[in-house]
Amino acid sequence: MTDQEPRPRPRLGVFKFASCDGCQLTLLDCEDELLPLADEVEIRHFLEASGAVAPGPYDLSLVEGSITTPEDARRIRQVRADSRHLVTIGACATAGGVQALRNFADVEEFTRTVYATPEYISTLATSTPVSAHVPVDFELRGCPIDRGQLLEVVTAYLSGRRPDIPDHSVCFACKRRGTVCVTVAHGTPCLGPVTHAGCGAICPAFGRGCYGCFGPARSTNLPAYIPVLRRDGMDERDVTRFLRTYNAAAFEEPSVRESRP
Amino acid sequence: MTHRETRVLRVGALSRVEGEGALHVRIRGGEVAEARLEIYEPPRFFEAFLRGRGHTEPPDITSRVCGICPVAYQMSACRAIEDACGVEVGGPLADLRRLLYCGEWIESQTLHVHLLHAPDFLGGDSAVDLARTHRPQVERGLRLKQAGNLLMEVLGGRAIHPVNVRVGGFHRVPARAELRPLRERLLRARDDAREAVRWVAGFDFPDAAVDADLLALAEPGAYAIGSGTPAVLAAGAAAPPRSFAVRDFGRHVVEQQVPHSTALQSRLDGRRHLTGSLARYAISGHLMSPLAREAAGEAGIAAPGDGGEVCRNPFRSIVVRALEVLYAADEAVRLIDAYEPPDRPSADVPARAGTGHGATEAPRGLLYHRYTLDGDGTVADAVLVPPTAQNQGAIEDDLRRLVQDELRRGGPDPDTEALTRLCERAIRNHDPCISCSAHFLRLDVEHG
Q1: Nearest to B67 among A23, A101, A206 (CB)
Q2: Which of B150, B228, B347, B352 could form a disulfide with B217 if both were Cys (CB 3.0 to 4.6 A apart)?
Q3: Of B38-42, B192-196, B367-371, B390-394, minimum mean pLDDT range
């Protein structure tokens, strides 16, 4: 290498599947870090931000969104093949997202509900996480993801270490923040005890119960917690609605999925 | 190549737009035979899975339609559910909602002006490229965006999918002192926004005009954001616009399926219409604050009510968006100065059977929600009509017109690459939010 040649920078790709764009927007919401980051990495694929698209391989690919069509099931395999590290960002890519509510229903009925001519449809019956299709190196939780955690993940992979993302419950974050427990003090139904930390325990700080948008924490005992929700006034239908929203069935799975090595 | 041949301009994956779309223009014998904005964003079925949910849930659930304008979804959902339940939320709670909405306008419009749209005028593929030649301006844009995000974080808990909004108002309202640091940031943002208007007003704007009818909410004495009555300024017509009640939205704006889009396209009383910044400004621009109107005059884009002409040039929408950022920053400061905490963070909204309608001005235009509730509040039916689905037809018309004009001007064989870039600009002028528009289904598309 001569002095004139710039140091090769790690190559970053950002890919979107079925999603709201909010998790990749989180990268653009790093207003203080965006331009310095762009000096450190070569952004080769990020359609929301740039018209310049360069082929893989990518050292780090951030994947937003769930897999809901046959074409996307093919495309995610290509992204995996092109990527040294693949990190899912957000509840859609990690757990199927709010659109995975279709998994509990009859998709044909759904298509008739929203479409006048359902025979055009080409969609899978399910909305599935990326890990159901290809190996994933790390899953970043949240609907949406937290900006600080995103920076930690990107920094970690750029420096060749594992991200330092705690997998304990939101309760820890409430204690750290000094928020009075909304369940204990006010009897407000709250999923904090079974939900993965990372948001900074925002909801209880605003006087509402956690609604589980980061999915389940590493080790939880949901069956033991449901009677508490019932005590605080939720009937069976309320509990089901509460658990099945942004992370679909993730709370009800027998074992909490761990990120793969 | 001779001008008799057919050629196809195609961009398979549009960049610097939110969501997944493509464009397809077919030219035959020097004439545009077909111009399509293809929306292939996968379906997400929101209207279907809202059925069976509780009446308190749509604000949080529908915010997930769009990470770029979640507050718009929350606000239209709240208004529709409150309408169904016969509750009107006014006074300081309505002001706080407007303040939160200002944060989203500042963030979202700044994102488009500085990061997505400006490179079209100045060159480069992205804001990162642009920062090499225009670093202070890009940094100013990021600072502005951050101020909008900060407003949403203080009031809503976070900038994307805020947690503090509920049917009836908020979970928690801030004390006056909590808004003070925010006010300082917004004063800086107001100065930045004023500079940004000057900056974008100096760009080169090709001649162009959209001929669609313009649709926006209108409200006496205010630049409508979170409330108002739909008003229509027909192409070629002078003010005042005609208007109709929000509850009649579905009778006037009719959605229909087209075979190249997972979004449903709309017609307003049978005609193509455009909603968003150009429409809002044409109808209510004279109701912006004195500061914003002064900046508009300086920028040569005074509102029709202030002696200007209706701006129908889609390239100049960047100036209108910059003006809306300035207005939103100014309005946010005014709302903070006037703020008195309400007695309660939310009004009671007991469930009842009925149908409710809600419309607010998302950054990209009028966003309509309708819900039918059972007696216990269970959602029996839901309809969401996002701005980009309404705009798709007008955007395609605009695309066709721009390419046709270019063919006339540049002769029958203009450079394909330059023409394709112009097509991309034609789409980006309208800031389509494709994630929003395609909450429906995927279609199998036949590519010509």
Answers
A1: A23
A2: B228
A3: B38-42
**Greater pLDDT, B123 or B315:** B315
Q: Position B398: which residue type?
A: D
Chain A contact present for B16, CB below 8 A = yes
Q: Which of A114, A120, A124 to mutate to test the interface with B (most CBs of B within 10 A)?
A: A114
| β-pairing verdict for A83-89 and A58-64 | parallel
Q: Count other Cβ atoms within 10 Å, centred on residue B302.
A: 18
User: What domains can be seen in chain A, in order of their start residue?
Assistant: 11-158 (3.40.50.700), 170-252 (no CATH)
Tokens 């920028």 sit on residue:
B299
Greatest alpha-carbon span in chain B: 73
- Could you give the C-alpha distances from B341 to A207, B93, B94, B106, B344, in angstroms and in order? 16, 9, 12, 23, 8
Task: Identify the segments of chain A with pLDDT beneath 70.
Answer: 1-6, 105-124, 254-261
Taking the CA atoms of chain B, what radius of gyration do you get in angstroms? 21
| b/e sequence A169-202, b meaning 16+ C-beta within 10 Å | bbbebbeeeebeebbeeeebbbbbbbbbbbbbbb
From chain B, the residues in CB contact with A121 under 8 A are 43, 441-443
Give per-residue pLDDT as tens, B300-336: 999 999 999 999 999 999 999 999 999 999 999 999 9
Q: How far is Cα B22 from Cα B13, in angstroms, rounded to an integer?
A: 5
Q: How far apart are CA B405 and CA B6, in angstroms?
A: 17
B386: tokens are 């996002």
Sheet of strand B379-385, all strands in order from the earlier edge strand to the far edge: B354-362, B365-373, B379-385
Residue A220 CA to residue A169 CA, distance in Å, equals 8
Q: Encoding tokens for residue A109? A: 């009925």
Mutate to test the interface with A, among B11, B45, B151, B165 (most CBs of A within 10 A): B45
Distances from the Cα of B401 to the Cα of A40, B36, B52, B216, B444, angstroms: 42, 12, 45, 23, 27
Provide CB contacts within 8 A for A178, sequence distance 6+.
Answer: none
Chain B residue numbers with beta carbons less than 8 Å from the beta carbon of A23 are 67
Report pLDDT digits (tens) over A36-56: 999 999 999 999 898 888 999
Contacts of A102 in chain B (CB under 8 A): 45, 48-49
Please state, in angstroms and as integers, the Cα–Cα distance from residue B86 to each residue in B230, B251, B360, B408, following that order.
20, 21, 18, 56
Local structure of A14: helix, strand or coil: strand
- The alpha carbon dihedral of A180, A185, A186, A188 has a sign of positive
